Amino acid sequence: MRKPKLRELGEAIRAIVLGPYTSKFPFKPSPAAPRFRGKIEFDAEKCVLCGACVEVCPANAREQQDDLTRGVRKEIYHPERCIYCGQCVAYCTTKEGIRHTQEYDLAQITRDGYEESIEDELICCERCGEVITTRAHLLWIARRVGELAYANPNLFLVLSREYGEESIPKSADTPPYRSEHLRYLCPACRRSVYLNEIWGY
Prior knowledge:
Layout: H1 6-18, E1 40-42, H2 52-56, E2 62-67, E3 72-77, H3 87-90, E4 98-100, E5 116-124, E6 131-134, H4 135-145, H5 153-162, H6 187-199
Antiparallel strand pairs: 1-4, 2-3, 3-5, 5-6
């Protein structure tokens, strides 16, 4: 009878001591690879609802809705459409707002509670009502640029509000000098305010 090779004998001994090399699925879930692109989750504290992930999603698995009556922006993730390409994670503005998890067993019988959403306060132009962005987005930019934020009125106002200060001095009679500057304005309205002040347009 042919004697077993030493390598095969070593494998047999290791299998007896350590157990079989194969996974114990379905009794124990098989762990995913470290870089596995599993279920995507929002990080509510770090997502600024800028909409970058909505723009780059090739499967239209992300949707953004601005509710002007409530003054909030809602971003919705539809997992049933997601192809897990990772574009939203790669192009996230903050690089921390969305992340892949190790979760891969996502099958459900119904769609109840399947979609995920996140909301934040909208900042709109105080003259024309045009949507500027979310409050969280402006705050993230202000903290990113540091002291330069005080050179931009919108960033200055959102920081003032964050620190609990009054954004504009209130007056029942005449508005204070250059009070138009201390308002949330879209680029077009801010340009109009500056031109009107300088040239009288």
